[in-house]
Specification:
The complex is a heterodimer.
Chain A lengths: L2 H26 L9 H23 L15 H24 L1 H15 L5 H22 L11
Chain B lengths: L1 H11 L2 H19 L5 H12 L4 H26 L8 H12 L3 H34 L4 H18 L4 H14 L3 E2 L6 E2 L13 H20 L19 H23 L4 H16 L11 H25 L5 H12 L8 H4 L1 H32 L4 H18 L4 H19 L4 H24 L6 H4 L1 H30 L1
Antiparallel strand pairs in B: 1-2
Helix pairs in contact in B: 1-15, 2-3, 2-4, 2-15, 3-4, 3-9, 3-13, 3-16, 4-5, 4-6, 4-12, 4-13, 4-15, 5-6, 5-12, 6-10, 6-12, 6-15, 7-8, 7-18, 7-20, 8-18, 9-16, 9-17, 9-18, 10-11, 10-12, 11-12, 13-18, 16-17
The chains are: A mainly alpha, B mainly alpha.
Chain lengths: ~150, ~500
Amino acid sequence: MKNENKFSDLCLGLGFVILGAVVFILAGKLQNVARGLGPSGYPQVVAIMMIILGSTLALGNLIGGFPKPDFSIENPKGWLKILILLVVTFVYVWLLKSLGFLLLTPFYMGFLLVLFNHRDYKKVVAISLLTTIVLYLLFVKVFMIFLPSFRLF
Amino acid sequence: MFAPMMSGLISIFQPIPFLLMCFGVAIGTIIGALPGLSGSMGIILLLPLVYQLPSGVALVMLCGLYCGSMYGGSVSAILLKTPGTPSAAATMLDGNPLSNQGYAGKAIGVSAFSSFVGGLISTMCLILIAPQLAKVALKFQAADYFSLSIFGLSIMASSSGKSISKGLLSGCVGLLISTIGIDPIVGATRFTFGNYRLMSGLPLLPVLIGVFALSEVMVNLRDGKKATADIQDQKLTSIFPSRKEIAFFLKAAVVGGLLGVFLGIIPGTGGAIACFLAYNVAQKISKKPEDFGSGSLEGIAAPEAANNGTTGGALVPMLTLGIPGDVVTSVMLGALILVGVKPGPLLFVENADIVYTLFAGMFVVQFLMLGFGILFAKFAPRILKVPYKTLMPIILILCVVGSFSLANQTYHINIAIIFGIVGLFMKKFGFPGAPLVLGIILGPIAEESLNRALIVSNNSWSILFTRPISLFFLIMAAVSIVFSVLSTKKSQLRKKYG
């Protein structure tokens, strides 16, 4: 196994141990019952399983010495693209309620196509409009599923 | 059995269900053929539509998609030397050489016919085995159900990733997510942190969309997949195999189909193992074993029949026990719960009409798959040329619309995006997504069963080990984990010492 994988797995294993411990404590504050598990029992059972498995993952990566930390990012451009995609998608979802699906989606679709390296802009416009209209007709007219529409107020 | 089967056939031959079934097979075949897209993603993309349908129709449509995607994977294996699904890898061994010799049409035809044979065998086995297994499963008690859930999770965890501990951790996270909301025992709220939306727990559909579809789109964006597939320009002619050819490869197809069913029933084995095993066996029983690897028709027929043989086999544990056999059936399990069908032995008692509609539908699906498979071969080269840079944005929009359509709330889109990020990092660090989803699905069943078992036994955990069925499932869970650890160690040692 690569050294960087060993280090990340060690960190992830420890992360799961901490998550398990937090869940165990939080669940302990829930109501308890005399017979059966009650609301707290089952999450605590899962938390214990998580602590054991997290420890196994962490300890397994300590065999052969402490792995060397590696903080380099593989394919930074790709990750930046994902970050841009996420930010724009959250903005799209936020605006969807007020601007509506029909008005907003062609722009969002056009942006996605450019992000995915489409450079023929005539095609980008055509695909964006066509996809929006087809999806709108399919969902609203055929499947009778409501999609957000433009609202002034 | 005859009367309910007839009634099932009548219900699927109504215009709308029949059209939807055709749609499911067609979409499944196309999605299966496109490398990088899987049957599970197809099911997820269709969920917004499926969600609106009556349960029986939805089930049949999903089965059509499942079977279609299993066949579709072979088309790209033959034409592109890139299997659309992992289980189509064995088909590539002889399918691609035959395509290179200028007989791509023939290879696809043999693949479609063998998939049909395998599918028919698996449907017959499903009809014969599932009701009997359901009768046995009706005797299960609370402790048995808990152990069965643990067994299901351990099988999925050990089969869907390289590291068993990561698979199990993924399952644990799923179990933990299932505890969010109002608890089923005394009605107390858990882990909602004052958010009223979380009181009903996390919605399954956006989670599925995020983990399986959105994460895939993000991986494609990050890695910048090739714009279009390298596809040979050749006219696909004489697709349907002749009688002489069918007589030549039928034995291999039947053997492959039977092997597929057998391995499909065992949860976690998956189609890929069945296909390679079938390929091996077909070579051993062939009169022309020397042709294998250079375009043998039997070499295509056996793995393809095994591939579709696993479909009916994998449905047996999913329908009777609620334990999926592979990743696609685990997504299908989630989809069924969304449309109001609760797989398990009671399904055969309370919703026998749905079960028989499914049985009848599975038969019809095989014929549709054969017809569409042959028809699709003509258009396959053009469909496979659709660039990823166009396909992925469309999938993303479908994911957004699909999440929204669940309850007409943008909250669900946000959940899907968050789980898309979770899925992306799970992929990066080698955590499989299927155990997480299965954990969310099986979590409530496991909790309720364990609670009931402890109440009955006066808080004695020994009930899990004193009931024979429960003990059996726990032993099987332990065996699957130990087996997985040993096989990982073995492959590590092999890599190290050649």
